[in-house]
Write a structure and sequence with these properties.
Helix 3 packs antiparallel against helix 6 and helix 6 packs antiparallel against helix 7. 89% of the residues lie in helices and 0% in strands.
Length: 193
């Protein structure tokens, strides 16, 4: 974390903004299904020969529309900021690595072929690997944790028993994901060597 913080030093405003805006964005995305539920619950009253509150339905439709637009704006902005930050980190990593390599002297360049060095600098530092992991990878995990917390909270507020029943397969899925993820990382390392 301390090494990563060094690279994030110039990008702290982006980091803080992403830390603050991500939970707000995820709230809008996570709460929208509650609004849909409210609309359908109100419409179900008609099926039971009761009068539906049209004003309540309209209010929830307007809120759903507003939440959808706000969520879309946040999503586009957050993804764009992450992408820009990935590229800035990639550039910063490469410049620092170049500075370091240049100081190593001629014996270093005789020991390693230029193609190997270039491949490492292009492939390993690229926006899809190190730079991506240093920004988007961290914030996707952060976003996923926040969505899970919001969803569990909203589910629990609707039905605690159903929430518990739902969490049982979710833990199994998480276990499978961890095993598959480790295997994927091992395979990726082997192919890089």
């Amino acid at each position: 974390v301390s090494l990563l913080w060094k690279f994030w030093g110039n990008l702290k405003p982006s980091l803080y903004f992403l830390l603050l805006i991500t939970p707000v964005s995820m709230f809008f995305r996570s709460y929208s299904p509650i609004l849909i539920k409210n609309i359908f619950d109100e419409l179900a009253k008609v099926e039971n020969h009761n009068k539906a509150d049209v004003a309540y339905i309209k209010e929830n439709l307007v809120l759903f529309s507003i939440f959808g637009v706000v969520s879309l704006i946040f999503y586009i902005y957050i993804q764009s900021l992450r992408g820009i930050t990935n590229y800035k980190l990639e550039n910063y990593f490469r410049l620092n690595i170049f500075k370091y390599i240049i100081k190593l002297g001629q014996s270093f360049f005789q020991k390693f072929e230029t193609g190997d060095l270039t491949t490492r600098l292009i492939d390993d530092v690229s926006e899809k690997k190190l730079a991506w992991s240093a920004c988007s990878g961290i914030f996707r995990t952060y976003e996923a944790i926040i969505v899970i917390i919001y969803c569990i909270y909203f589910m629990f507020s609707l039905s605690p028993i159903l929430t518990i029943v739902t969490l049982i397969p979710l833990t199994t899925l998480l276990s499978v994901y961890i095993v598959v993820s480790k295997k994927t990382i091992e395979y990726s390392k082997r192919t890089q060597e």
